[in-house]
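FIELD: query
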Amino acid sequence: MQDYVIRLEQAGMGDVDKVGGKNASLGEMIHQLCDAGVKVPGGFATTAQAYRDFLQHNHLTDKINALLNELDSNDTRALTETGRQIREWILAGEFQPLLDTAICQAYAEMAGNDAISVAVRSSATAEDLPDASFAGQQETYLNIRGLDNIKHAIKSVFASLYNDRAISYRVHRGFIHSDVALSAGIQRMVRSETGASGVMFSLDTESGFKQVVFITAAYGLGETVVQGAVNPDEFYVYKPTLNQGAPAILRRNLGSKAIKMIYGGEGSTADAVETVDVPREDRDRFCISDADVEAWHRLLSLLSSIMVVPWISNGPKTVMMVNST
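FIELD: result
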């Protein structure tokens, strides 16, 4: 089973070729931060080998390669039709028995007797190379509930390796389609829809100034902030002042926060989340308190002392999702 499924806490940065950059980073965070009291939700990931064997099991490898070899990626109609056909083949496929069993066992160990919600995310084995980035090209599914829905979401993640944008990007950057494999990460969700969520950076993302922490936050699930679908609240915290125990928020910008993403439906890929309007009185106030901001800064200081996530041009920067309930 180890060839097909790995628990996230067992993964690390040496496993990028097995579970992709995103899942490898999650694993690194879990086993580095647990002793420091930082809670990172656990889960499991399917491996690149599981994905490749899934294609072989359904006799899709040669069919996909043949179809892509004939594709003129500059023909948008042909690109759309080719991507649609490949995704349909993958969604109609069946998991090979060993993979199906491995998913069932991993989910049973993860959920126990609880009715849990999970995020099913894509993690490509070629993410964030020095000269290219595949991150964000594939799909994410939130609030997936029940084993059957999780299995369907995993196949949908596999299929998203062949969405139009991903195909076109690989062609124009000179990557061979079959060299890129996909891992599906299944991670227990934090129900941030009941509060606020956002992204925290250990420096100013525009200037690269390292003495501030930059925090963005909005109501509901964090996907709206990550996607740029909402104008979030913004906070700049001056590190030296906060480290002295003094008030340290340099600037607050009140975002419009017009919408929020919440749980919905029955937990399938079709209706697991919905986007709703935020009441006017909530839009006109900050979604998190100064105490939240300062607490997150202290957490980030702890994270930065334990691990560093490299970023392309501005030197070491730690980036994390934060939630407030």
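FIELD: remark
Residues 306-325 have pLDDT under 50 and may be disordered.
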